[in-house]
Each structure stands twice: as C-alpha cells, then as structure tokens.
Design goal:
The chain is an alpha/beta fold. It has 15 helices and 13 strands. The radius of gyration is 21 Å and the shape is globular. The structure holds glutamine.
C-alpha cells in the first residue's frame, strides 16, 4: 500500500491499531518526495532526519497508548512559521539563512502532538502573491498540470498535499493564500476566523488580516488539524479566548434547514463558465441534501479588492521595516555608511513584488495621502463588514466560487500585477471582515483542472462551514481523484 496517499484520519486509526508505524509512513512520504519533488518544487527545506527521529518518538508514544490527534502524522509547514533552529525564509533572499531562536505557537502545538515535520514549503515572497512565482527559491508547479501555477501564496503547501508529498499541511491566509491554492490544486483549505489561531511566530505580512490554517486531502482532516492549532494564546494579543470545539463533531452530514446565501454581486460576470457551472451544480447538490439557498446582497463588494490592496501593503510596509540588515538575515556587503547599508540591503534582499508593496503601502500611509487612501480603505472595510453582518441575519453561510477561473499558466500574469491581484477577488473580503472561509473541491474544468467552492461563515462558526463542506464532499468524489503529475498540457 502507498502509505503516503492516506489521509490523517485513516492513518490515525491504522497507527492506533498498530497496523503501521509512524516510521513506515514517514519513510513512505520521503520516498514519494524523492520521486516527485523534482517536478513539483513544493519545498524550500526538507527535514528528513528530524522527521524520522520524531517518527520514532511518536511510535514509542503510540506504543504507550498516549497517542493523540496528530501523533506520528507527517505534516508540511509553510516557510513563514518560525521553527526553532530551522531555516525560516519566507521565500525571500533577505531571510535566506535566518534561523529563529524559538518555535511559533502552532509549531509548539504540533510538536506537543508529536506530529512529524516533513519540511518547510515554498511560498510567494513574504506571502505576497497569488501564484508562488515570486519566491526567491523558484516556482512551485501545479500537480494537475505542471505547466501551471499552484496558486499562492501557500502554493508549496497546497501542491505538497495534492502531490501526496505530505499527509497534511499548514498555510497562512492574508487575502486568500490558503483557499486560493487549495482551489487550484484540488485540496481542502480553511482560513479560520481572525483570532482563532495564534499568529505568534508567524512572520507578519498584514497583521490585521493574517491567519494560519490547514490544507488537507479532505474535510475531516481539515477539522482535525484545525482543532489541534486553534485556541487562545497569551503571546498573541489578537487571539481570542473562546473555547475551541472539537470540529470533528460537526461532521455529522446533516445540513437539513441550513440557509445558504449567494451574494449576487459575485456573479455579475468574469467567471469562467466551467467554474460557474460547477458552483451552481454544488448549490443544487446542497439543496438536495436539505439546504435552502437564496440570493443576498453584499453591496460594497466591488470595493473590497481595492481596499485590500491598500490595507495589506500599508501594514506590510510597516511590518517589513524591520529587515534592515541589522537585526536579521541578509546584509549587503561593503556599504558606504549606515543609510547606504539599509538601502543596499533592502534593494538586494527584497524581490520586485515585495518592493512594489512597500512602495504602495508607504505612499498610502504618507502624510497628505493617508486620508485619501488608508483611512478611506479602512472606512470601506467597515462597510463591507456591515454587509456581512446583514447577510448573516438572513443565512447561515455564504457560498461563492473560490477563484474566478482554474489555475493559469506559469508566467501568464507575472507581467501584469493587476491581473494577478484580480484572482483574489472572492477571497479577500473574508480577511477584511475576519470571518472563516473554506475551499472545497467542487469539480474539474474541461481541461481537467480542479475547481474550488468557497463557503464563508459567521465569526467563530467554523463548525457550520465544515459541516456543510463535509456533507457536500461525502456526496461527491472530487476529493478522491489524484493528479497524474504529467508534464503541462500546454492548453
Ligand atoms: N494574493 C494576496 C496578496 O498577494 C493574498 C496573499 C495572502 O493571503 N498571503 O496579497
């Protein structure tokens, strides 16, 4: 049996029954990586030695009967989460050799479970991007068509899950970076409510939007991983002290009476016909399972992308001020004085997209422009949040496509940032408002590329979107198909 193909919940049972050991599973995963990583490029750093060592500890714990949710399960981690003594690059030259002196809170939680670290996954530099093409460490490819992007910025985590190079993974989502690559790669991805998962040890991009979340092979695995990483953390003042439910309990398949809202502003054109059809088929499918749907209005939707692309760069420009060649990572050689050292370090250390964001953000925050841009965008954010509050009076969740079209070709949008930004049109509102969102596979295009369905819930109501996603998944087989890892079809 190809153990690397299994899911978290399947392995949990097999490990518990003693049918396999974590060492066997881990070896199988690393053999798989040997076979396919050259094609996919999902990882920046592999951790085979640490992984095998941890697998042995996990096996001992399982033998002692002290196994819990993730013990012995090989997981991949996006390379913007601090792991003590392990290179954490954020896909950037400026952090190429940075080794954090501490574990982030999610890493600590996974370590407590004795889950097995597989490696650190590739990402757009500082999580800025929608395609994992801006990484200093190269491009990650889509396992369904190697000529296409995997999405971003958590493209490495999504493609590692899709290509069975790990059993599950963590990503981060500031404007869609978990849900969007999950949709492109045909896996499940969930952005939790802002404050549900600690951001301590997550390298900051836009602090009022960032959240860590799971990327998995199915919805049950997503619920397991989310339960493990959720919870209050006094090291993150924005994490919220609300009890964590066991999200697996919400997977009862019962969605009778569930009210689904379809935001009419999201369906006004520009959606690929295959995506539109799959999403409406999904609506009909959910209706058959007992849910009811109605049209709702999110009237400020057209401003969400613009507001996001002011707020996120503004926060980024402030967060990235710390990379100055003094405290962390890369420092330019032979500077002529302090100012020159800052300037050279930052111009040599950051890539083009990061510099673009810093310039946009600095401009939006500068005296004289602050009111016109940052303040206005913050006001728009409030209006968008009110739209969601109103909509959630009429429905229990909102349903949209995750992205307007399936994965595009590598290089197709790199010369046109605006086209790249437009792929985030359906995902950014959840971050601006702080609500949770999941992307679950809902079909394939004529070219055989995965399509994702997005479900958004009320604050801290991850249970409802997981319940609906699970019911939907159980009546479809999209999550069971695996990519062939063929060379690009060139269409
Ligand atoms: N694609 C979006 C951006 O480039 C979102 C990125 C993210 O969620 N990290 O800002």
């Amino acid at each position: 049996m190809d153990l690397y193909r299994l899911k978290i919940h399947e392995l949990q049972e097999m490990l518990q029954r003693g049918e396999v050991s974590s060492r066997e599973v881990t070896e199988s995963v690393f053999r798989r990586i040997d076979d396919v990583e050259g094609k996919v490029g999902a990882f920046i750093t592999l951790m085979e030695d640490e992984g095998l060592e941890c697998a042995e500890l996990a096996d001992r714990r399982i033998e002692e009967g002290k196994q819990d949710g993730l013990t012995g399960i090989p997981l991949a981690i996006k390379d913007n989460m601090c792991m003590k003594g392990k290179r954490t690059t954020c896909g950037s030259k400026i952090l190429e050799s940075y080794k954090p002196p501490y574990d982030g809170t999610v890493i600590k939680s996974l370590g407590g479970h004795l889950s097995v670290p597989v490696g650190k996954t590739n990402m757009d530099e500082f999580a800025m991007g929608s395609s994992t093409e801006t990484s200093y460490f190269g491009i990650t490819r889509n396992p369904w068509d190697l000529g296409r992007i995997a999405g971003g910025s958590s493209g490495g985590s999504a493609s590692a899950v899709a290509a069975d190079e790990c059993i599950g993974a963590l990503g981060s989502d500031t404007g869609g970076s978990i849900r969007q690559p999950a949709a492109y790669c045909g896996v499940v991805g969930l952005k939790p409510t802002y404050g549900r998962v600690s951001r301590f040890g997550l390298v900051a991009f836009a602090s009022s939007l960032d959240q860590i979340g799971p990327l998995t092979k199915d919805v049950r695995d997503c619920a397991i991983l989310l339960t493990a990483i959720s919870g209050h953390d006094r090291l993150d003042s924005t994490s919220v002290d609300i009890a964590v439910e066991d999200y697996v309990n919400s997977l009862d398949g019962d969605i009778g009476g569930l009210r689904i809202g379809i935001p009419k502003e999201y369906f006004t054109g520009g959606i690929d016909p295959d995506v539109e059809k799959s999403v409406w088929d999904a609506v009909k499918g959910l209706e058959k399972l007992g849910a009811a749907y109605k049209e709702v209005s999110l009237s400020h939707s057209e401003y969400a992308l613009a507001a996001y692309y002011i707020i996120a760069p503004a926060e980024a420009s402030s967060n990235l001020a710390r990379y100055d060649g003094v405290k962390y990572g890369y420092r330019a050689s032979r500077p002529e004085g302090l100012i020159d050292m800052y300037a050279k370090t930052r111009s040599e250390g950051f890539g083009r997209e990061v510099k673009r964001r810093i310039m946009l953000g600095t401009y939006a925050l500068s005296a004289g422009y602050y009111d016109a841009y940052y303040k206005k965008a913050s006001q728009v954010r409030t209006l968008i949040a009110r739209d969601f509050d109103e909509a959630f009076k009429e429905c229990d969740l909102l349903l949209t496509p995750t992205v307007p079209a399936p994965a595009f070709k590598i290089g197709e949008k790199t010369g046109d940032p605006l086209q790249m930004y437009l792929t985030d049109i359906f995902t950014v509102p959840a971050n601006l408002v702080g609500v949770p969102g999941i992307s679950v596979p809902c079909g394939f295009s004529k070219d055989g590329l995965p399509i994702g369905l997005q479900l958004l819930g009320r604050h801290f109501d991850e249970a409802t979107i997981l319940r609906a996603a699970y019911a939907f998944e159980q009546h479809t087989d999209y999550h069971l198909r695996r990519p062939s890892l063929d060379a690009g079809r060139g269409k």
